[in-house]
Design goal:
alpha/beta, 7 strands, globular
Length: about 270
């Protein structure tokens, strides 16, 4: 999140950066979190996810695209549920292993390397599923939702956030969002339709674009305040390009072209 490469999907590279204390400081300012997560889920939104999923001790939660454990580990810590974290980059999962150990949570946590589009779990294994800004980071959105449904029990709940283009954009506006948004921000049709088509019924929808914009602005402010150390870490040209990337995203949001939304759904 804080520092991805512009639209190049180098998640492993961004997880290496996100371990560094200076980058964690920026993450803390932007999201009130220090897990090294690349999504835009804030600490406050974690409480809303717990409520929406009605997480409790005994729930079996699967967090897809869990990265370094944000927000899956905190969801489990606060609600006492069991959590399975799944992602692809091993360096992210290693950070999650370390964090689970530091927080004395190892008995509650399973960590698995695999793809959300071909989940290595039996049918009906979980009663809660979450993913934070993952659908905008992969092309196979329907496959991930169908796989989520396959591993979900019949009364399961799912909660996710996603960054997406606003509706009714001109082609050139849409192209701008594709250019500066997350790597797979484009979506054919609506997420509500994708959910219906994969066996989920939407129960709750929230527009969290304003929080996303505020987090981006706090990040840009943090870059400004820590500029000289960041130049030493990244070099002036790389820092300037990363900062510009975030400013472009703020611009897209302020022009009403890009949004961040959350959906809660139940299995049907
Ligand atoms: C924006 S990051 C979010 C990470 C974490 N959930 C967070 O909140 O910070 C998107 C994540 O989706 C993961 N991802 C992308 N494609 C995936 C796939 N096919 N299966 C599982 N995870 C995937 C990436 O590796 C990355 O960690």
């Amino acid at each position: 999140m804080i520092f991805d490469k512009n639209n190049c999907c180098d998640f492993a590279g961004s997880y290496d950066l996100s371990r560094l204390p200076l980058i964690k400081k920026l993450e803390q300012a932007a999201l009130d979190s220090d897990y090294g997560g690349p999504s835009w889920t804030t600490r406050k939104q974690v409480d809303a996810i717990i409520e929406s999923l009605a997480l409790h001790s005994g729930s079996r939660l699967l967090d897809i695209g869990s990265g370094a454990g944000w927000p899956g580990l905190l969801l489990a810590k606060l609600s006492q549920c069991d959590v399975t974290l799944l992602d692809i980059p091993l360096n992210a999962l290693q950070q999650a292993v370390e964090r689970a150990g530091e927080d004395a949570m190892t008995g509650q946590v399973d960590i698995v390397s695999g793809s959300g589009t071909s989940l290595p779990f039996l049918d009906r294994s979980f009663d809660r599923i979450s993913h934070s800004d993952v659908l905008c980071c992969l092309a196979e959105k329907m496959e991930l939702l169908q796989e989520s449904r396959r591993v979900a029990r019949d009364d399961a709940r799912m909660h996710f956030s996603v960054i997406l283009p606003a509706t009714d954009l001109s082609q050139s506006e849409y192209d701008e969002v594709l250019e500066s948004g997350p790597p797979f921000v484009g979506v054919d049709g609506s997420y509500a339709d994708l959910l219906r088509g994969s066996g989920w019924q939407v129960t709750e929808y929230q527009d969290v674009t304003a929080d996303y914009r505020d987090s981006l602005q706090r990040l840009v402010d943090g870059i400004q305040s820590n500029e000289s150390e960041l130049i030493q870490l990244l070099g002036a040209a790389d820092l300037a390009s990363k900062r510009q990337h975030r400013e472009d995203q703020i611009g897209l949001i302020e022009r009403g072209l890009m949004r961040r939304e959350t959906f809660a759904a139940t299995a049907i």
